[in-house]
Amino acid sequence: MASATVRVLIEGTNPTEAFDALVDPALVQFWFPYEFVLEPGVDGHLSFMQAGWEQPATGIIAAIEPGALLRLRFVGALAGTATVTLSGQQHGVLVSVHHEGASDGPACSDLWERVLARLKGYLEGKAP
């Protein structure tokens, strides 16, 4: 099993605003690049499907620390545990994703890079 770590600095925002964009389905719909299901809260179900996948990535929200941490446990296409951390910086927020247990580390990194790029575009007011 492989791991992947991806980071992005999002300027002009704060950890609370970035966290809300990650967990509120009404906000996620504006930036997330794939069709998704998200039930907010610990033990909430989530799933999404990327073109070319034979099965969706499905899982649960395993842990939440508002404005600081989101831990997701996946089965299927994205099996493993993804820990998203948010850290306030002088001009914005650093969002990091560390995904453990992925079957394909480079593909996992590519996926999270696309997701974080869309989140950055949304929060910085650019077209996703």
Description:
- This protein has a single domain, classed as 2-Layer Sandwich (Alpha-D-Glucose-1,6-Bisphosphate, Chain A, domain 4), CATH 3.30.530.
- Helix content is 27%, strand content 43%.
- It has helices at residues 15-23, 25-31, 105-123, and strands at residues 2-11, 36-38, 45-48, 57-65, 69-76, 80-89, 92-102.
- β6 and β7 form a beta hairpin.
- α1 packs across α2.
- The N and C termini lie far apart (31 Å).
SSE order and pairing:
Layout: E1 2-11, H1 15-23, H2 25-31, E2 36-38, E3 45-48, E4 57-65, E5 69-76, E6 80-89, E7 92-102, H3 105-123
Could you provide a short overview of the structure?
The chain is of the alpha+beta class and 128 residues long. The chain is built from three helices and seven strands, in the order E-H-H-E-E-E-E-E-E-H.
Features:
seven-stranded antiparallel β-sheet; alpha+beta; Alpha-D-Glucose-1,6-Bisphosphate, Chain A, domain 4; 7 strands; 3 helices; 128 residues
